[in-house]
Specification:
Shape: globular
Number of strands: 0
Number of helices: 8
Oligomer: single chain
Strand content: under 5%
Radius of gyration: 18 Å
Largest sheet: none
């Protein structure tokens, strides 16, 4: 049992390693401006507050982007080396989140961390649940077989994630940006 528990913790370790490498990259290699300097500028955030989001166009944009990510994941799931694909994806997710969070903190202080959390809420929770099912299946393959319930769960979590990203998150961001800009 202990060996099984340790094997499952390797997935979390892969995410943590990617996050740590992203932090190191952003601090030491990205330069003074960071990797995403324009995203955290006050002018950019003030313009975001004034923009009226066209929900229908934004919905199709988000559907296209998330379908691309889910499609790439499905393609990686067809590979022979599913465990390696799970580790690579988790390291990359951690790496990008490390870069984003450190860049936000370096440019906005602790308000940048609040900005990042608000930017991923609530849709990040739903996407995360879908990815956990996918990556855990890859990691446990061939001991666990993919079935219809897993497919329905992943599709449902992505659909709820898309809907919350389009309809709830802009409202949260417009509420949190004035707090962060103070």
């Amino acid at each position: 049992m202990r060996i099984e528990k340790n094997k499952n913790q390797l997935l979390l370790a892969a995410l943590a390693v990617g996050f740590f490498v992203g932090i190191l990259y952003e601090n030491f290699l990205a330069g003074k401006q960071g990797t995403v300097p324009e995203l955290f500028q006050k002018n950019y955030l003030q313009k975001y507050l004034q923009i009226k989001v066209v929900t229908r166009k934004y919905l199709w944009y988000v559907v296209k982007e998330r379908a691309l990510v889910l499609g790439v994941c499905c393609m990686l799931g067809l590979m022979k080396w599913k465990r390696i694909a799970a580790f690579i994806c988790l390291v990359l997710f951690g790496f990008f989140f490390g870069i984003l969070s450190v860049s936000a903190v370096l440019q906005m202080g602790l308000g940048g961390l609040l900005f990042c959390v608000a930017g991923m809420f609530p849709h990040g929770f739903f996407y995360g649940m879908g990815f956990v099912v996918i990556f855990y299946h890859w990691y446990r393959y061939p001991n666990r077989k993919w079935d219809r319930m897993k497919s329905l769960f992943v599709i449902a979590t992505f659909l709820v994630g898309i809907l919350t990203e389009v309809y709830v998150n802009p409202w949260i961001m417009k509420w949190i940006i004035p707090i962060v800009l103070k």
